[in-house]
Design brief:
about 210 residues, six-stranded mixed sheet, 8 strands, binds uracil, binds iron/sulfur cluster, iron-sulfur, hydrolase
């Protein structure tokens, strides 16, 4: 079976995952990327924030959510009174998919279902180590990775969703809350403030669920 499984260490730590992902050949995305980007944050964070894939900046720096979308996310976390120490930020796909350039920036392309499927063992390993109480699903790629192709952020956002059991975790999260991806806030021109406020409102739902 193709996919990342054979590159994931048997008894990993967050640190060994980070080095092991650099060897992954589970799909072709490693070829055009600078490096693999694993999640970052508190080892036993209450909440995992799940994005799509590293972007241009993340690919260069090797850390998730350090570019423009990450700045929106950090601001929204602060406005939702979520302590940065209680979150772990990661993505469903660990290598940056892109094609073509615009100025100096490489143009982002969303990963497809095959990439998401191939990369799932890395996400499973992170969730097994962090054991979050809940997961915030950022945008439709993350949502479809967990709930299938019918998933729509607009229909599912801002409330507790049951955790889908197909990741086969010994200690699964109790719930997930879906919201818009912070990069969608950046793209929403006239409605940027409304989109941002809705993101913060959804994060507050997760804060309430954390108790
Ligand atoms: N967008 C994502 O989904 N993840 C990142 O890490 C950065 C941008
Ligand atoms: Fe491996 Fe995921 Fe990178 Fe594909 S995207 S090579 S599965 S780490």
């Amino acid at each position: 079976r193709p996919g990342a499984e054979e590159w994931v260490p048997a008894r990993p730590s967050l640190r060994t995952l980070r080095s092991a992902v650099q060897e992954c050949r589970g799909c072709e995305l490693y070829r055009d990327a600078t490096q693999g980007v694993m999640g970052d944050g508190a080892r036993r964070a209450g909440l995992v924030l799940l994005g799509e894939q590293p972007g241009d900046q993340e690919d260069q720096q090797g850390e998730p959510f350090v570019g423009p979308a990450g700045r929106v996310l950090d601001e929204a976390l602060a406005d939702a009174d979520l302590a940065a120490t209680d979150v772990f930020r990661t993505n469903v796909v660990k290598h940056f998919r892109w094609s073509g350039t615009r100025g100096k920036r490489r143009i982002h392309q969303s990963p497809n279902k095959g990439h998401v499927e191939a990369c799932r063992p890395w996400l499973r390993a992170e969730l097994a180590l962090v054991r979050p109480r809940g997961v915030v699903v950022l945008g439709s790629t993350a949502g479809q990775a967990l709930y299938g192709p019918q998933f729509r952020v607009g229909e599912s956002r801002g409330r507790a969703l049951p955790w889908p059991d197909d990741l086969d975790l010994a200690h699964p999260p109790a719930w997930a809350v879906a919201t818009t991806h912070p990069s969608a806030v950046l793209r929403a021109r006239d409605e940027r403030q409304a989109a941002y406020d809705a993101l913060v409102a959804d994060l507050r739902v997760a804060v309430r669920l954390l108790g």
